[in-house]
Amino acid sequence: ASPRHAEPPDGGWGWMIVAGCFLVTICTRAVTRCISIFFVEFQAYFGQDYARTAWIHSIVDCATMLCAPLGSLISNHVSCQVGIMLGGLLASAGLILSSFATSLEHLYLSLGVLTGLGFALCYSPAIAMVGKYFNKRKALAYGIAMSGSGIGTFILAPVVQLLIEQFSWRGALLILGGFVLNLCVCGALMRPIALKEDHKTAPEFLEKDYVPKAQKRDLKQMSICSPLIKAWSRECLCYCSWKEYDFLLMPGFMVLAVSILFMAYGCSPLFVYLVPYALSVGVSHHQAAFLMSILGVIDIIGNVTFGWLTDRRCLKKHRHYCYLFAVGMDGLCCLFLPILRNFPLLVPFSFTFGYFDGAYVTLIPVVTADVVGTSSLSSALGVVYFLHAIPYLVSPPVAGWLVDTTGSYTASFLLCGFSMIFSSTLLCFARLAKKIKRMHLQSLTNDTGTKQHIWTNGAIAYSVTAELDQKDVEFLAVDTNSYSNR
């Protein structure tokens, strides 16, 4: 059994978890980005247009995010190690089967659905494990772990191109399939850890004398088909399943979920249309490709430096606002992009957008953990990445339709910018409303002599001591109706 820790160790084996998550992001997100390098080869071999070929990348991205809750479910009920190893086998099988493809429909299923499902089983559980091992240096740990996407893209892109030239696209996919098997090694590194916080939500009937101690010992020797055991198991399973996703009803998480939808819609099209836009304003092919390289490299710097900065004492309490600032800055960059019509102006754009893109990607798990707590982080991240799926699938085609309709990229970039700014503004207003409510309750506390307590899940409890028949009677009321009067 895993040793129980009072709080995350913030080091030790945790750095091996960070290394494992770093490699997971390389094998999942970086490999997904490199699939676009195969587009020209797929078009030439199968004789299809760009629109049909582009669905391969969209299906991989969508399947990875859409099946993220499944990865969290397997991680919670079986183990993180088994989930990531299974995902590595599925993703590798998808890439290997794709090397034998005879049609685009074959690639949709093998490279799109099967590989995307494998990536989904690995991505969110690995990220959640970092949150279980780190607290004080959580943002820095996530910055290092998530930088694998940028570093992997920077390294794998030329390597994949070289593999295609040497072994054709079939050989390159076969070699990538072998490379992705490293996810099984990552899974082996994910040693489980038991935190005391994980055991605070035990069912009440386990804490009380639901079954006498002597009977509990006897139950171990009874048949598994015993009606008592079946009833107990069913109640325990239903309770635990609900406790895993009870954060869905938290107002703070609901607001975060809506903001994630708009943020995901705004960030996706730019990576697809930056190079075409640069070519449309007269930038050379070499310079346009260089803009994407800048985005990848600066994305790494944003991952690590912003994570380190937000772990400093002066900013640690304001990481939520740092996340809002990063998302808002990327939105502003998109709004100004239509007036940047030459290479010297597009280079600063790539630096700025790439830095803040890496910054808010690092802080997504941190902000989610602050909202739902560490014990629910794996399930919550599964839902958060699930919410990325539909925007990732829909936003590039919508942006392309706007380009075809208007004849320019202006409407597409403006829609992306306003979407990200709205995401940031929504969270900001929600944060301010929560702060105003807390200040209002504190003022009531000062006026009525109420003693106020802030619960770890964000609920506000306050006790009022009143004099009744010369006796002190204490009433406990909870702001979110999570607890009854005691």
From TrEMBL:
Coiled coil: none annotated. Its main location: membrane. PANTHER family: MONOCARBOXYLATE TRANSPORTER, MONOCARBOXYLATE TRANSPORTER 12. GO terms for molecular function: transmembrane transporter activity. The keyword Cell membrane applies. Keywords: Cell membrane, Membrane, Transmembrane, Transmembrane helix. GO terms for biological process: creatine transmembrane transport. It is a multi-pass membrane protein. It comes from Pampusana beccarii. It is found in: Basolateral cell membrane. Functions as a transporter for creatine and as well for its precursor guanidinoacetate. Transport of creatine and GAA is independent of resting membrane potential and extracellular Na(+), Cl(-), or pH. Contributes to the process of creatine biosynthesis and distribution. InterPro entries: MFS (IPR011701), MFS_dom (IPR020846), MFS_trans_sf (IPR036259), Proton-linked_MCT (IPR050327). Residues 13-435 form the Major facilitator superfamily (MFS) profile domain. Belongs to the major facilitator superfamily. Monocarboxylate porter (TC 2.A.1.13) family. Signal peptide: none annotated. This is Monocarboxylate transporter 12. GO terms for cellular component: basolateral plasma membrane.
